[in-house]
Task: structure prediction
Amino acid sequence: MGQPINLSNRIGFIFDCDGTLLDTMDAWLSMEDVFAARVGARITPDQRKGLCTMTMPEEAMWLHTMLGVGSSVKELEREIDDYFMDYYSNQANPKPGAMEIVESLASKGIPCSIASSSPHAYLEAGLKRTGLLEYFTTVLSTDDVRASKRERRIFDTAAAAMETKPHNTWCVDDAIYAVRTMKNAGFNVIGIHDKESSGTMQQLKREADIAVESLFDIDVDFILNGRNVA
Result:
């Protein structure tokens, strides 16, 4: 997709992981259902929307305090951790177009980073399994920065690792709440549709700079040629 360009403006890309680069959202949804079923409970659509914004420790706290799952929050966290470490290490698969877009950006010298709500160990395991890990300057979990994606800290930290400024940094995410955070922080945002519970296409079109159904729909050359980049 063209020759490497001069990066005097230090353009960078920040990617979400689950539902954006890795096809792992069904694993999170099934985890919630599996653990809720232990106590004869079911996750409602409204509860699901709330859970989509939580980190893993927050989900464990919610499942224990609201539904009574597990003997303690800490014990439940350990069980969930075992469940996901096995999944990310042995079953996680890339989303269509994931390898193609990171390879395209790498060929142009564009740095990329990860900003995700999933624990760091899961991210490393899943990205390593799929061959994507080597393409990222930094991999950040909300646990690493001690702030959720409802706050801008993780995106600022990722940009700093790439030595880019928000107005020259493109963020790709499927969660509407993260899209809003990034836009309010001055980043350029590509909303990618995955699950309706994360964000509808209508919401993404309304609030992101660009909304796409697939990573294949992201026109890297169009973006690098000046779309919303100072």
The chain has eleven helices and six strands. The CA atoms of residues 15 and 172 lie 5 Å apart. Residues 1-8 have pLDDT under 50 and may be disordered. The first strand starts at residue 12 and ends at 15.
